[in-house]
């Protein structure tokens, strides 16, 4: 990959944005692990080295299993190395999407799964001595217009019934905390922000130290089922009695979960570091992660390197569930607009990087975790939408226990019938229509915010 491909200037995007092929947090590791050559075997083969794959491998190793991980690029190449770094629990999960389908009792357990994901990562950071600039500041879902109060309060009330613990922050409390004035009032939940690149690279280091055999630049091409699963790669094979597909948004391309999840492109922009004066003028001393209750949320956070990161806002879908690693100029433009709207004092600040990555979404917005194959020895995890920092880490623990012969109650709670996705071109039309509808509603709110600012 040439240097120009790794980072190129996006013309026409305000602030001279630089597109980064690998996201904003990780570089190709100096100690890239060798490609698989020849035939190898283990107790479990894990495909994909993001939070899910590495957590599963580490948990299996601590149960004494021999583990092989196959990663098509390098650990952290996928969403785990590209996300916004919010370690957030159940707040912001769209309860309405699934409540009627699964009922209150199962929904309560799933809410608990999201919240326990936060506690799990906090514990693992300590156990594995991973320093990833975790700031347990809490996460605030903050309104930018008074008309968002109804939805915010409704979601809080519904969440409370399901066990999601949040606290309403009125405008006085928001101002007392020094939250930038564009964010009027909000709902606070335990959690915080971290550097996802340092987190995933910390998991990678721990995996190598634990003796997990990680083969990078090794894509799974195909596999054969049976009591022993054999995975074929370009130059070798890996065999084991169990395989875990931790390939998330890339899974449909492997021919599995094509009828269960759709990959959605999520984009991010990051500013140059703010000066001391700019930081001081913002206030925001606790640096809480902020998300908005738009239909497609905006998220705004400061990083440990004093940059401002703005993500989501405009999602994308590529026909046929593909995941092209290319710039989304329209999304970066929309994110710059969101930055200008929420932080007018920073208008014109240079954008040091912009990038995109893929999450996977089931039509009911629930996790898709299960087992397949005649022997039920092919396990998979996907569908945690934009909430995978905690959940896709915790799921590693649940899958490892399942392989070890124990069904964790949270794993049982995730079991449900995922609605089938539509065939193409219907899926493309349906997702495009849904995203356009959400963007239209969000633009209406944003116009009201702008005209209120002018009055
Ligand atoms: C821009 C962005 C912002 C986000 N912000 C947040 C946030 O703030 N908080 C939050 O909780 N979540 C967020 N998310 C979602 C979160 O990042 C994901 O849910 C999580 O990282 C998924 O982890 P994973 O291990 O399941 O998948 P991934 O990290 O995508 O890992 C899958 C891996 O599989 C590999 N792979 C694919 N195919 C093959 C193959 N054939 N052979 C071998 N390897 C293969 C890929 O290269 C990849 O490394 C965000 C996502 C994006 C893109």
Bound molecules: flavin-adenine dinucleotide
Helix content: 25-40%
Taking all residues together, what is the mean pLDDT?
A: 94
What portion of the residues fall into strands of 2 or more residues? 15-25%
What report would you give on this structure?
- There is one protein chain.
- With 455 residues, the protein is α/β, with parallel strands linked by helices.
- It has a domain at 1-30 and 263-272 and 307-361 and 422-455.
- Helices cover 34% and strands 22% of the residues.
- It contains 11 helices and 22 strands.
- The chain has helices at 3-6, 51-62, 95-127, 149-161, 171-177, 196-209, 276-282, 329-342, 388-403, 409-414, 426-454, and strands at residues 7-9, 18-20, 38-41, 44-47, 67-70, 86-88, 139-142, 167-169, 186-189, 191-193, 213-215, 222-224, 229-232, 236-240, 242-245, 262-271, 289-291, 298-302, 308-312, 351-361, 368-372, 378-382.
- It has an 8-stranded mixed sheet, with helices on both faces.
- α2 (51-62) packs parallel to α9 (388-403), α3 packs across α4 (149-161) and α3 (95-127) packs across α9 (388-403).
- The longest helix has 33 residues, at 95-127.
- The termini are far apart.
- The model is unreliable at 1-5 (pLDDT under 50).
- The protein binds flavin-adenine dinucleotide (FAD).
- Flavin-adenine dinucleotide is lined by residues 47-53, 70-73, 77-80, 82-86, 88, 219-220, 246-250, 254, 266, 268, 311, 357, 359, 384, 386-390, 392.
- The site of flavin-adenine dinucleotide (FAD) has 41 residues, from α2, β6, β16, β20 and α9.
